[in-house]
Predict the structure of Palmitoyltransferase.
Amino acid sequence: MSDDDGESLCCCEYYDKDKNRSHLLATCCFCEDFDEGFESLITGKGFPQHRRQKFMATVQDRLRLPWRGGAKTVSIEAVIPIIVLPTIFIVAAQSLWWTVFSFSTVTVFLLYIFKFLIKVTPKTKFFFVWSVTSIILLYIIFEFIVIPFLEILFEENIALSLLIGGFLFCLYTLKVRANQYHKFQADSENLLHPGTRFHNCSICQTTVPDKDHHCVWYDCCISRQNQCLFIMSLVFAFAALLYSSNLTLTSVCHPFELYETILLPDDCSEVYQAFELGISFVSAIYSMILAVIVLILLLQQILLVSIGLTRKEWNKLPFSSKCLLGVTSRKSHNRGFIRNWSRIICWTAPNYSIVSHT
């Protein structure tokens, strides 16, 4: 059907990406992109590369909810994490084997999604929404399920909230700074600021000065301008995840006293006897897994800043140099340990001079 501007849409109608009037029932009708893709997939030829982006665009366009004045689009990136993550927690809370199965499955799922989405839709918000969903879900479980066990002191809850607040502040500030300073576009006719490394980001579609890497979990580029905030956010995240997991485990498991008021979990064999205990235990395990991942990223950032390398430059090093922590590699931008750290800690907005060739 062609566009009809003079007639209002019902709650199940919408204008698709081709500006044609359609209905939600048409979602079940497969188009050429679906037909060719699934035919190749069934015959063992794999999903055609040239059809992947069109396939995702069609799925995104058809994923809608009935709404007054016309059906509204629902972002896939916003739907999948919000549905998948709570489901995993609920399933994992049933027994130990379900916990192992759920976390193993989600690991494979994330690896596949990362490989697929980065190629098909590099600007995907999936990983950022997954991060936000994880934060919200863990905090809700802690505040509304773990706290009512009356095993956690008020001061401990305040300390954890401060750690989470510090993480959120660093995350917000580094994203603001990234949006502010990563809009610099390199011009082939201009002379770029000397001493500055400029890298093109295929995800942000821009040229980023002193880029380290693009963080899909934060949905922004990490460069010298916000690298200190990125490292601080990892410190707060690691502390909050480790502290919350210990508080939860000592609340749902039988704890033992390590030193004076320091408690550690001892016997967790009874955590699956009640759903509240099970889901609290699962959230603590998930927090510990995230804490290990965050710690690895933190140690990597500390190493790279100390030796004056970006992650992109690190990835290009031979395996032998990586085993020696990059000591033997050539580092043209290395200014020494102290200057490398002062460069990101004492960073101020640079005045990038652009001088035309004559």
Remarks:
- The chain has two domains: 13-74, 151-345.
